[in-house]
């Protein structure tokens, strides 16, 4: 009995894997009418920020895990003190919740990342900028960001004033150098409580307005040494932080040929959706196996190339009408719709194409997603 | 909104495909505590033999389809008269429900099958036996059989007396020659209302006490002409009978090198479970696409060999304890548990292995299933 906090598409896709494993999922959902609430029978509708609600629900589970990283560390520590098994544990998860904590820890481990500083006022941002070659610099709220939210690029001290004025006093702000990067990469690693690790290949991800829109697995034309380094970073971080479940490490491949850690997530991740159709074991199944302390499945790709393209909400009120053309044009395309209300820019599904010819695979996936989006 | 009558593992595995397609399933279940009832939120518990229950439920669906073939033809015809879309339609489904109707229709189409006759008394069985070279002959109740139930091999007229005495007066009994066969084969075809067909490769199935226990896809060492003939039979039967959804054709490969139709089913079928992991598009997804009149997905195998072995209930009360050894021994094995109470001999799950070396693949699948069974 695996409890999942949060009823988005990640919990929904966990359910597909859970059905195969014969493992019941229990959901704590923000609403019954939610992506995962539609497909998980044992759903409690409640507010995870309310400790009594969270705690009462959590005690019915063998293990508690997450669709998102928004549950407060204090709540999770209380659950653990009450005997609930939480995976990842709050002491690991905090590194995916708080960018200040994450940067400090990775620096202490010597893991490569952008230069950074905690800033409190605009003159502090300017002082930091002067140490990294000047503006622009990136400002990030320590907590609460996702899909580009809470991340700002500022071009001067006046810009920093505006951003800092818009953030609550209680939330720390991190300044980071704006890294010149060739592209973004990501590595997913599943880690079991036993310490067993399974690392997926390094993938290339394309972001638009802070949202992951396309992933190619494995990352094309990646220097083999850099691939080993990236996987090594992810496995080391997973082990040092004591992650149980999936760890996603988002990286910059810099223009001068290094990899720098950008973000961490501790749950199934958009950069791993290709694995449902493209790998021997999907990220969703391996997340469940890891939090249940079962032996991990093989993360190896089944095909030369997989390309995943997100479907973002467009003008069409329903995605269903996209099927006839998309499926008739490409009988091999894999479509995943999330059962969510279509709203402009919202992640409402994804498609995956796979095959031997990268250019063709990419064109197939892009065409299918664009058709569903109505563009 | 696809309504499914019956809450067994076939409906459960349909749900995995439906989640991906973003298509809501609605279930008419014999009990909430059922294989599919555990994983489909919109479940009505009710008795499909009660027309009011069936009809009230059915009217909320875009299309109604099946986990099993036990709904009476009369009920289905009434639903259709009431405007419910039923796929497969009752005029097609009756060929999977009534072996007498099926044999008559296939004979009229010239589709090869065992010699057969409807029998009413033991002397009729003896008369039939004398036309096919003598006893033993096979007696089958026209309706209600599955997993070997309703099928009897009788060695003499006295045996026929016993079987006929055990069958209700209302049910017709079919006598068939006992075919000398090399092995059993099966072909699955999905057919959309548009007439589009997608044929899976011919597979070899192994039955034990009337229950399918192992399937190899594709059937090894099959004469290519015979493979074409078998697929041709399945596609022709699907078209002539107007099947919508999946048609499974079970065949004998005779010792003298022919194929004869043994049984028909019109739903996802045990001989197609390999397709979840081994084909581009699973039988469950193609069944849903067919009944929704969406373009069909590619049924091509993704790998050289797939072997599916059923897990039958054994002494262990739970299957979960099988995971640590099975998954540690074989990180590529695909396990599917059905969330059913373990009872001796009951189908409670299956495993699929795939790869390039048939002997290895078969050993992996057999070992995993045997371990779950506790043997």
What's the order of the H and E elements of chain A?
Answer: EHEEHEHHHEHEEHEEEEEHEEHHEHEEH
**CATH arch. level architecture of the largest domain in chain A:** 2-Layer Sandwich
Average pLDDT, all residues of chain A: 96
Q: What assembly state would you assign to the polypeptide chains in this entry?
A: homodimer
The CATH homologous superfamily of the largest domain in chain A is called ATP-grasp fold, B domain
Categorize the overall geometry of chain A. globular
Helix-strand makeup class of chain A: alpha+beta
Biggest sheet details of chain A: 9 strands, antiparallel
Taking pLDDT < 50 over at least 5 consecutive residues as the criterion, the unreliable ranges of chain A are none
CATH class descriptor name of the largest domain in chain A: Alpha Beta
First-last Cα distance of chain A: 42 Å
Which percent band covers the strand fraction of chain A? 25-35%
Q: What is the fold-level CATH name, i.e. the topology of the largest domain in chain A?
A: D-amino Acid Aminotransferase, Chain A, domain 1
- Rounded to an integer in angstroms, the radius of gyration calculated over CA atoms of chain A is 20 Å
The percent of residues in helical segments of chain A reads 25-40%
Helix tally of chain A? 12
Tell me the total number of β-strands of chain A: 17
């Amino acid at each position: 009995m695996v409890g999942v906090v949060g009823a988005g598409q990640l919990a929904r896709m966990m359910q597909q894997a859970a059905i195969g494993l014969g493992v019941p999922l229990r959901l704590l959902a923000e609403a019954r009418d939610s992506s995962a609430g539609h497909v998980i029978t044992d759903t409690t509708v409640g507010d995870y920020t309310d400790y009594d609600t969270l705690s009462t629900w959590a005690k019915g589970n063998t293990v508690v895990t997450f669709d998102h990283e928004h549950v407060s560390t204090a709540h999770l520590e209380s659950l653990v003190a009450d005997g609930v098994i939480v995976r990842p544990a709050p002491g690991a998860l905090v590194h995916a919740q708080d960018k200040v904590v994450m940067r400090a820890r990775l620096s202490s481990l010597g893991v490569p990342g952008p230069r950074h500083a905690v800033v409190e006022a605009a003159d502090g941002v300017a002082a930091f900028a002067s140490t990294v070659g000047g503006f622009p610099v990136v400002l990030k709220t320590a907590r609460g960001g996702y899909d580009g939210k809470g991340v700002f690029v500022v071009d001067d001290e006046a810009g920093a004033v505006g951003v800092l004025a818009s953030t609550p006093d209680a939330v720390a702000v991190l300044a980071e150098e704006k890294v010149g990067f060739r592209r973004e990469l990501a590595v997913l690693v599943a880690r079991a409580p036993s310490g067993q690790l399974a690392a997926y290949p390094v993938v290339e991800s394309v972001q638009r307005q802070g949202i992951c829109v396309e992933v190619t697995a494995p990352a094309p034309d990646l220097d083999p040494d850099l691939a080993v380094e990236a996987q090594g970073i992810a496995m080391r971080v997973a082990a040092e932080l004591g992650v149980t479940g999936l760890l996603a490490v988002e990286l910059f491949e810099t223009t001068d040929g290094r990899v720098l850690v950008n973000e961490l997530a501790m749950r199934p991740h958009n950069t791993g959706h290709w694995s449902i159709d493209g790998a021997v074991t999907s990220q969703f199944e391996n997340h469940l196996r890891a939090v249940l302390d079962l032996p991990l499945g093989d993360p190896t790709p089944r095909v030369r190339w997989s390309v995943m393209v997100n479907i973002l909400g467009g003008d069409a009120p329903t995605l269903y009408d996209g099927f006839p053309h998309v499926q008739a044009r490409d009988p091999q395309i894999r479509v995943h719709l999330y059962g969510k209300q279509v709203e402009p820019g919202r992640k409402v599904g994804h498609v995956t194409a796979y095959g031997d010819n990268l250019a063709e695979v990419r064109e197939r996936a892009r065409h299918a997603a664009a058709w569903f989006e109505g563009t």
